[in-house]
Each structure stands twice: as C-alpha cells, then as structure tokens.
Design a protein that fits this description.
Radius of gyration: 48 Å
Shape: elongated
Distance between the termini: 132 Å
Structural class: alpha+beta
Largest sheet: 6 strands, antiparallel
C-alpha cells in the first residue's frame, strides 16, 4: 500500500473534498435519464473523484453473445478498446464481473496473473489499449438486486501503489450510483418505448378505424349501385372516381367489359388497357405487344400498374385493372377500394351471368326447335316472350368465327376461356343489336353468332334490306374493333315473313358461309347469290363433280400440264360480265393476249363463249367451284 507523506489533517480534507465531489456526481447522474448520457457522465466524473485514474472503461454484459462489451471509455485507444470483448471470468474485468466483487490489482506479478487467462486475440489488443503500461487497476461490478450486468475498470499509469483502499471504496460507491442511474435510464427508456408503442398502436387503431369507415362508405356506394341495378359500367365509373384513376374491367380473355375515365380529365388513348393484357400475357407465356395510338405513337405505359382478379369462390371471372399515372400519387386506401369493388363486381357478374345463362338457354332451345321445324302456336308464344314480333320483318345475320379451333390451339385456351369468349360475343351482339332493334333475338350456335334482326313492317322491302345491310356492316366493324385477334365471316340472309320461313333462310345463310369461309372481308348477301342458292341446295356431290368435269375438266387438265391460267382467265371473264377491257386490266395482260386465251378456252373445251347454253354451263361450273372448291380435285 502507498504511504501518505502529507499531514493527516490535509489528507482528511482531501477525502472530505472527494466525498463532496461524490455528492455532486450523484446529482449529475440523476440529472439525465438518457442511458448514453448517464454512462458518459460516469466516465467523465471518475477521474474527478479518483485523481489517480488515467483511463477507465465501462463494459456491459451481452447475454446473447455471453460477453462483456465496451460501451464507453476514457484514456484508451478507440480502435482497440471498441473491439475488446471479454468472457465472464476473463482478465481482471471478467474476474470482478464473475465474482461480483470490487478488486484492486497492483504490482507486476499480480497484474500479469490478472491477464494471463485472456484469449490470444484479446491479449494482442491488451498490449495496444493504452499509450503506457498500467501499474495499478481497479474493477467494480455493476450489481442491481443481486444481478451483475456490467463492470467499471480504471487504470493508473503513474505507479504500482497509485490506488488505495479508499479509492476502491469510492469506485464501489460510484459503481453503485452508476448502477442505479443506468437502471433508472433503462426503466425510463422501456417506459418511453412502451409509450411509443402505445402511441403507435393508437395511431394504427385510428388508421384502421378510418380504413374501416372508408371501406364501409365504399361498400355502401358500390353496393347501392348494384342494388339499383345500374350495372358494371356504373360500378366501374364509381371505382374510378374513388381512386382518381382510370379503371378497366377485363374478362377472362382480356377483352374490356367496362372502361371508366376521370370526369373532367382528358381520357387516355383508346386501348390503354392493352398493357394489362400484356402483363397477363407474360404471366401466361403469351406473346407480348405494345399498342400504338392513331398517330402511330406507343401508348404510354401506366406506372405502378395494379391487376386484381375478380373471383366467385374458386372461379375466376375477370380482372380489375388500374394504375398510377406519372406525377399522380393516387388516393389513400386504394387497395381497400379495389378489394371492395372486386367483391361487389363479382356479385354483379354472377347475377348478370345467371340471368344471361337463362336467356341464352331459352334462346338456344328456341332456335333448335325452329330449326327442327316445330312452328306451332306454342313455339310462337315462346318466341314472343323472347322478343319476337309478328309486326316485324326478320333478317337472318350469321357471324361466324373464322378458324376458331386454330385460335383455341394457338392460345391454348381452356374450356372456361372458350365459354367466356362465346358469352362475350353473345353479350356484345345482343347489346349492339337490341339497342336500336329491341324486337330482335340473338343467340349462339356452335362457333357462330345467330341474329334474328327484327325491323318493323312500316318500311318497304328495299328500305328494310338497306337497314339490315347497315346493321350487318356495323356488327362486322364492331366485332373487328372489339375482338381484334379474331376474324369473322358474315352472311345476311333473305327476309322471313314468319317463323315458318326461318329454317330455310337459316340453311341458305349457313350454305353461303361456305363461299366466304374466312376468305373475304365482305358481307355475303344471300339475296344477291342468285343461282348459287339453288346450286348450294344440291346434295349429290358426285353429280356436281361430273358436271364440272364435263364443262371444265379439259381446261383444268391443260392448265395443270402447261402451268397456264386459262381457268383464271375464264373466271375473271365471267366476273366482269365479258368486258374485255376490264378483264385485261384485271389480269394485267394485253387485249390481244386476252383474245388468244379466250380462243384457246373454246378450242380446249369444245364450247363457244358466245353461245347461250355453253355460256350458262360455264357460269354454273365456275359458281360450283366457288361454292365447293373440292370439286376441282374430284373433277
């Protein structure tokens, strides 16, 4: 122990001053409840109470790592002390922690024994902790209610007997005060965290309450529209108004059911929803394409697009598509609104689908019975319930999907998607036709849209036919716009004065489809087919092939052997009513060449183009080949 060389009275005065300093330290430690401030205050006041202290460190126990970790220090080299981590029992600090008692180490031997159990890594760090070698060390545990949670270690570089027992007692007192202050700060921080958690919880509760209230308001708005039978368009527009964003409903094959833009805002380019089709296409391994507007510019993509499925149980009915535009932050609770809308829309779609299925079944059954030849009073009554009116003249319009089987295979459509396409076509056709002609009946048969277009009898036949042609052309245009990936062949049948004529007119129209069969963009008018209608009704193909062979067989054989175009020349000659100038222009040949070809046709067929009977045979044979191309092989 170090012997004092100062008078006893002076030493007592020094100790009293240090005790007074302890009182000041206690006041400083209670001045703050921030743990980092408390720890820093402890370290800064230790040298003031114990002047011999040259360096000090406060280490706290980390139960997860099972290590003492340096939290604050004075007089140590930062880069080494912050890496120093001691096991309980390791070195002097670990010893004081494990044994829960204050210890004083002094002298080279005792000091060396204090660090001999350190790990190699910590030993290498120990050598560079301070600029000088410590001659004396004191350690005091931080003990709260019997639980040790840290240790304070102080070093002196001046001599082996720098610290006294009184210094050790002072360090213990400081450690006790530090323990209380650290625990108080921990309790304060826990309480503050609890209060923050409570405030966060209250904020979440308020936010959820607002969301719930908002969700209820949204649900009331959308459900009210459904109860008022306003339809999907009104519900979609309401959702667009809520979100302040454009919204589109797509069916299962990505065709739009309803589109809504923002009131008072310039609408987006037509077809902007195609990008959602592309998103869904990528997820289903279908080809991706980006549409262009009328000026040839690519339609701008929606930023942060959102595609939400509409489902009824496990059945998917379609998609709600929306998204944030550039520089548009949208509105709060967008997800809530879309989810609420998805539920209401699903119910509305199920309701509409149920009504639609009943009407489709009734119309389909009516069509089958009419085609079966059942035209009694019972059938007439059923037709009247579905819209048939005896005061109308009815025109048959058939819209056939070209190569629908190939379309199904190309996109690998499942049965549900195929049914969705047919239903969409039927809904579209019904809305388009009955909007202006409510007495019409629209149904679907196989791959074909069947329309009984009812036009009032107050129009004469020519006016009625012109109206029917215009409606057929509009149907074709609208089908091309709405179902751009499919092509359609349309036939306008002859008028029906009553249900009894419908079967014959329908059969004529279906036979006329064999003429176009996806090869023409024109609408076939059965009224203009003339003799072709009679020829199409002949069932004996062998006799038809024999007739074609007798008239054109040698000509087809000659063309095949000599790679010539005489049959094409004859067909063009017939199409332009024997007008040599127009025929030569159409075939891009000289008039003399045309004359030579016509002469060769007469020589090969042994018939004369100017003879009435021969010319009629030519025309009938050509028309039969147009109706039944396979007859050329048979011939």
């Amino acid at each position: 122990m170090r012997k004092s060389t100062v008078p006893k009275s002076y030493q007592i005065q020094l100790e009293n001053d240090r005790l007074l300093k302890m009182t000041e330290v206690a006041r400083l430690l209670t001045a703050s409840l921030e743990s980092s401030t408390v720890i820093q205050t402890i370290l800064e006041t230790i040298p003031q109470v114990i002047p011999a202290v040259d360096a000090c460190v406060l280490m706290l126990y980390d139960p997860v790592k099972d290590l003492l970790v340096s939290k604050a220090w004075v007089g140590f080299i930062d880069k080494n002390i912050e890496r120093l981590q001691l096991r309980p029992g390791e070195s002097m600090s670990g010893y004081a922690f494990s044994n829960n008692k204050a210890v004083l180490f002094s002298g080279d031997k005792i000091f060396q024994e204090g660090i001999e159990n350190m790990s190699p890594v910590n030993k290498s760090l120990q050598a560079g902790l301070t600029p000088s070698i410590a001659k004396s060390v004191m350690c005091a545990p931080l003990n709260f209610k019997g639980q040790v949670f840290g240790v304070i270690t102080v070093n002196s570089f001046s001599g082996q007997d720098s610290f006294t027992e009184f210094d050790l007692q002072l360090l213990q007192s400081l450690a006790s005060q530090a323990t209380i202050s650290i625990e108080n700060s921990r309790l304060y921080e826990k309480q503050r965290e609890s209060l923050q958690e409570l405030a966060d919880l209250n904020r979440i509760i308020r936010q959820q309450a607002r969301q719930l209230e908002h969700a209820l308001n949204i649900h009331k708005t959308l459900a009210s529209l459904a109860l008022q039978n306003r339809g999907l368009s009104a519900i979609t527009q309401a959702l667009s108004d809520i979100l302040k964003q454009p919204v589109v409903l797509l069916d299962m094959v990505y065709n739009p059911i309803a589109v809504a833009n923002l009131p008072g805002v310039e609408p987006l380019p037509s077809g902007w929803w195609r990008q959602f089709d592309n998103l869904l296409a990528l997820s289903n391994n279908r080809p991706f394409h980006q549409d262009k507007d009328r000026d040839g510019e690519f339609i701008p993509l929606i930023i942060d697009p959102k595609v939400v499925p509409i489902q009824a149980g496990n059945e998917k009915l379609g998609f709600i598509c929306t998204g944030r535009l550039r520089n548009n932050n949208g509105v709060d609770f967008a997800n809530v609104a879309i989810e609420q809308a998805a539920t209401v829309i699903a119910l509305e779609m199920v309701k509409e689908q149920s009504i639609f299925e009943v009407e489709r079944r009734l119309r389909g059954e009516l069509l089958e019975e009419i085609l079966a030849g059942n035209n009694d009073e019972h059938i007439l009554n059923r037709a009247s319930l579905l819209g048939y009116d005896t005061n109308c003249r009815y025109w048959i319009i058939l819209a056939d999907i070209d190569d629908f089987r190939g379309y199904i295979q190309k996109y690998q459509l499942e049965e549900s998607a195929i049914l969705a396409i047919k239903n969409q076509l039927l809904k579209f056709g019904s809305q388009l036709v009955t909007k202006h002609h409510p007495k019409s009946i629209v149904t679907f048969r196989s791959d074909m849209l069947v329309i009984m277009l009812g036009i009032p009898n107050n129009m004469n036949l020519d006016q009625s036919r012109l109206r029917a042609k215009n409606i057929a052309q509009e149907i074709k245009n609208q089908l091309s716009n709405k179902f751009g990936q499919m092509s359609f062949s349309l036939v306008l049948g002859r008028p029906c004065a009553d249900l009894g004529q419908f079967k014959a007119r329908y059969q004529e129209a279906t036979l006329a489809l064999q003429i176009v069969g996806g090869t023409s963009n024109q609408i076939v008018d059965c009224s203009l087919l003339g003799s072709a209608l009679l020829l199409m009704k002949l069932d004996n193909r062998a006799e038809l092939a024999e007739f074609v062979n007798s008239v054109l067989g040698e000509l087809m054989k000659y063309d095949k052997q000599h790679h010539s175009d005489l049959l094409t020349t004859l067909t063009t000659y017939s199409r332009f009513n024997c007008n040599n100038v127009r025929v030569a222009a159409e075939l891009h040949i000289h008039a003399n060449t045309l004359s030579y070809r016509l002469s060769r046709i007469e020589e090969i067929t042994a018939r004369t183009l100017g003879r009435t009977d021969d010319w009629l045979d030519f025309q009938l044979a050509i028309r039969l080949l147009q109706i039944y191309p396979e007859l050329s092989d048979a011939a």
